[in-house]
Amino acid sequence: MFMSIKVRYFASLKERLGCSESHLDFAEGLTVQAVWQQLNPDLSLPNNILAAVNMDYVGLDAIVADGDEVAFFPPVTGG
Questions:
Q1: 21-70 tens-digit pLDDT
Q2: How far apart are CA 37 and CA 43, in angstroms?
Q3: Whether the predicted pLDDT of 7 surpasses 70
Q4: Model confidence at 74: pLDDT above 80
């Protein structure tokens, strides 16, 4: 059985990748980090990246499930 998730990129990541979202179909549980690696095999995961699953912050080792929305974005700084 295949699972499908939506992946969104924000701020400088969106500009760097040239897209704001992707979709990924996969056959078994993946971590957030593995999602990045599947979709961006030639680009290592930037340091101190923030990730969310279904709008909740998660660690890169969180497992995604069918229908989840994963988001990657650089840290926000205030001033």
A1: 999 999 888 999 999 999 999 999 988 899 999 999 999 999 999 999 99
A2: 8
A3: yes
A4: yes
CA triplet 57, 61, 66: central angle to 5 degrees?
75
User: Is residue 40 packed enough to be buried (19+ CB in 10 Å), middle (13-18) or exposed (0-12)?
Assistant: middle
| Region for residue 54 given its phi and psi (left: phi exceeds 0; alpha: psi -120 to 50; beta: otherwise) | left
**CA distance linking residue 38 with residue 55, whole number of Å:** 21
Distance CA 60, CA 3 (A): 19
Domain boundaries, the chain: 3-73
The answer to whether the beta carbons of residues 13 and 48 sit under 8 Å apart is: no
Q: At the top level of CATH, which class does the domain 3-73 belong to?
A: alpha beta
